[in-house]
Amino acid sequence: MAETGSGQTPEFGLDDADLAIEPTVFGPSAFAGKTVLISGGAGGIGRATAWLMARCGAAVVLTGRDAAKLDAAVATLRAAGLDASAKPCNVRDPASIAALHDWIWDEVGGLDILVNSAGGQFPQAAIDFSVKGWNAVIDTNLNGTWYMTQEAGRRWRDAGRPGSIVSIVVVTRQGLHGVAHSIAARSGVIGLTQALAVEWAPLNIRINCVAPGSIETPGWRVYDPSVIGAYPRSNPMMRTATSWEVAEACAYLSGDGARYVTGEVLNVAGGGQLWGETWTIPRPDYFNGPGRTLRQKDETP
Ligand SMILES: CCCCCCCCCCC/C=C/C(=O)SCCNC(=O)CCNC(=O)[C@H](O)C(C)(C)COP(=O)(O)OP(=O)(O)OC[C@H]1O[C@@H](n2cnc3c(N)ncnc32)[C@H](O)[C@@H]1OP(=O)(O)O
Ligand SMILES: NC(=O)C1=CN([C@@H]2O[C@H](COP(=O)(O)OP(=O)(O)OC[C@H]3O[C@@H](n4cnc5c(N)ncnc54)[C@H](OP(=O)(O)O)[C@@H]3O)[C@@H](O)[C@H]2O)C=CC1
C-alpha cells in the first residue's frame, strides 16, 4: 500500500501512483472529446474510473461531499497532465445536484457520460437497523442515484444530446448478507435502470449497472477485519479485485463499444454471483452447524 499523491495513505486499494500506470485495454483516445461526471469520484471505484477515462482522453468532473478529498484527487490527476475538475455535491440533495449540473453545462461545456459511484452502507443485522440508518442508506444509494440520473437525463433531453449512464450497485440476487438496506436500495436502482432503458431509448440515452464483488477500496474501512479476511473466498476465482477492474467495466458500458447495450447489469465479481454466501457481519452461529437430514428435521440445527 503506497502513499497517495494527496498525502493520504488509503487503508485498502490502489493509490493514485498505481492508477496512473495500470495497463488498460482502452486506447489513449477512447474517450477523447467526452466529458464524464463521476459521483464518488474521490473514492475507490470512482477515482479509478476517473483515472482510466482521463488517461483515455476524457475531461473528468469529480463530485462527492468532501471538498478537500476532491481537490486532492484533482491535483494528482492534473499533475499527470490530465483534464480534471471537481465540484462538491451531496447526492441526497437535489438542489446541490442542480447547481453541479448548472456549473457543468455553463462552465465545462456539457456532459456525455454519468457514472454513479457515490454510495455505501454499514454492516448490521437488519433486525437492528434504526430508522435513521435505514434512511441514510436508502437516501444515498437509491434516491441519490435517481436524483443524479434524472438531472442528467433532463439536461440531455433539453440539449438534444445523447447520453450514457452507469450506476454502481452490488450483487443483489445471491449471497451478500448483513447489508439488507443496501440490497433493497440497489435492487431499486436495478429496476429503475431497466425501466429507464426503455423510457429513455427515444432520448438516445443508454443506462446500465455494474455490480462489483470484493473490490479493495477505502470503503472497506467499515467492515470488521475478520469478515474482510473471508472476501478472497467470496468467488470461485478465490481473490479480491482492484478498483481498476471495475473501472474497465464502467468504461466499456459507458463507451461506444456498448452502443447496443442498455438496461443491463454487468457483474464484475469473479463469478461470486454464482457462488456461496458472503457476510458483512460475522456469520450467525445458526449457519455454522451441520444442517439437518429429513429424519432430524425437528431437532435444533
Ligand atoms: C455474491 C457476490 C458478492 C460478493 C461480495 C463480497 C464482498 C463484499 C464486500 C462488502 C460489500 C460492499 C462493500 C462496499 O460497498 S465498500 C464501499 C462503499 N463505502 C462505504 O460503504 C463507506 C461507508 N458507508 C457510508 O459512508 C454510507 O454512505 C452511509 C450511508 C452509512 C453514510 O451515511 P452518513 O454519512 O449519513 O452516515 P452517518 O455516519 O451520519 O450515519 C447515519 C446513520 O446511519 C446509522 N449508521 C451509520 N453507521 C453505522 C454503523 N456502523 N452501525 C450501525 N448504524 C450505523 C446510524 O443510525 C447513523 O445515525 P447516528 O450516527 O445518529 O446513529
Ligand atoms: N468496494 C467494494 O467491495 C464494493 C463497492 N460497491 C459499491 O461501489 C460504489 C463505490 O464504492 P467504493 O469506491 O468502494 O467506496 P468508497 O467509500 O471508496 O467511495 C464512495 C464514495 O461515495 C461518496 N459519497 C458517499 N455518500 C455521498 C453523498 N451523499 N453524496 C456524494 N457523494 C457521496 C464518498 O465521498 P464523500 O465522503 O466525499 O462524500 C466516497 O468517496 C458504492 O456504491 C459501493 O457501495 C459495491 C460492491 C462492492
TrEMBL record:
Keywords: Fatty acid biosynthesis, Fatty acid metabolism, Lipid biosynthesis, Lipid metabolism, NADP, Oxidoreductase, Peroxisome, Phosphoprotein. GO terms for biological process: fatty acid biosynthetic process. The keyword Oxidoreductase applies. It is found in: Peroxisome. Pathway: Lipid metabolism. It comes from the Bacteria. Transmembrane segments: none annotated. Its EC number is 1.3.1.38. It catalyses: (2E)-dodecenoyl-CoA + NADPH + H(+) = dodecanoyl-CoA + NADP(+); (2E)-hexenoyl-CoA + NADPH + H(+) = hexanoyl-CoA + NADP(+); (2E)-tetradecenoyl-CoA + NADPH + H(+) = tetradecanoyl-CoA + NADP(+); a (2E)-enoyl-CoA + NADPH + H(+) = a 2,3-saturated acyl-CoA + NADP(+). GO terms for molecular function: trans-2-enoyl-CoA reductase (NADPH) activity. It is an enzyme of class 1 (oxidoreductase). Its main location: other. SMART domains: PKS_KR (SM00822). Residues 34-192 form the Ketoreductase domain. InterPro entries: KR_dom, NAD(P)-bd_dom_sf, Peroxisomal_t2-enoyl-CoA_red, SDR_fam. Belongs to the short-chain dehydrogenases/reductases (SDR) family. Interacts with PEX5, probably required to target it into peroxisomes. Participates in chain elongation of fatty acids. Catalyzes the reduction of trans-2-enoyl-CoAs of varying chain lengths from 6:1 to 16:1, having maximum activity with 10:1 CoA. Has no 2,4-dienoyl-CoA reductase activity. This is Peroxisomal trans-2-enoyl-CoA reductase. It comes from Prosthecodimorpha hirschii.
